[in-house]
Amino acid sequence: MSTTQLLLAGVISLAIITAPGFHTASAEGLNADTKKSERKYRKTKTGEGAMTQKMLEACIKLKSEIDEEYEKISASKEEFDALNNEISDLAASLKENKEKLDNNDQKIIDEHNEQVDLYNKKLEELKEIETAYNKKSAPYQEKSAQLEKECNGQPYYEDDYAATVKKTGKSL
Hints:
mainly alpha; 72% helix; rod-shaped
């Protein structure tokens, strides 16, 4: 094996080892002689060591809350998207009709003005839905940021995680 191939293999191995994500730390993986009573757990969420079962349970609960928040905002997003599509169609129709508008035909002018009024009304509705959506999505965004900061990528013992999943009936 050439020096270049050896160096490339080392870089690839290092990339695999340092890949981000949830890290698990089993007692066997850290030290074959380590016993559960000798494990090092965190004293605080920002401290050293693996997450405790209580911390894992809090992360699982937070993930469940995030899923619930997502369900709440999902319906609002669908409503927003539907209205936004309707407004886009109206805008295209208005643009097309404006080019064909005959200033001498009052009936066509009145129909065009009605379409403009409908378009403006729909825009106001869209703004209201957007404001409501932003209010509903704020807790989702805050909890997602908290999950990322406190839970994702944090070490834990596999058997602690398994026990927590069994206790809560949910996983991360």
